[in-house]
Fold this protein.
Amino acid sequence: MKILGLDVGTKTIGIALSDAFGWTAQGLKTIRRNESNEAEDFKQIVSLIEEHAVQTVVVGYPKNMDGTIGASGQRSEQFVAQLSEYVSIHTELWDERLTTMAAERVLVDADVSRKKRKKVIDQMAARLILQGYLDRRSYTK
């Protein structure tokens, strides 16, 4: 069962994919959001879901540090609601607090240049979101 992880931002969507066993997450790609036609964003995601036979989508849920839901969290909730109009598979929101900062730290520690980091930071954040979900899922089985 493959699972897709999404780090949804206002300008880009980082995408990660699990292996068939649901053990590991790998960065897949970054989609540049289409501001004039957001249906294109969803069509690209649906295409990936179909291509990889994905059964679950995990969307990063940016909560405030005190656990409350702010504007970014509400945008994630809205994104999930819109995605359900295009595809009817299981979708979950996953707490993503500090994942972008963790992704940045991993890339800096790996001595990735600033220019290259900018290209892969969203994929790395999506990978961390998805890996957290996978780890929790295997822990609770």
Q: What stands out?
A: The domain at 2-140 is CATH 3.30.420.140 (Nucleotidyltransferase; domain 5). The chain has a mean pLDDT of 87. The CA atoms of residues 49 and 102 lie 26 Å apart. The chain has one domain: 2-140.
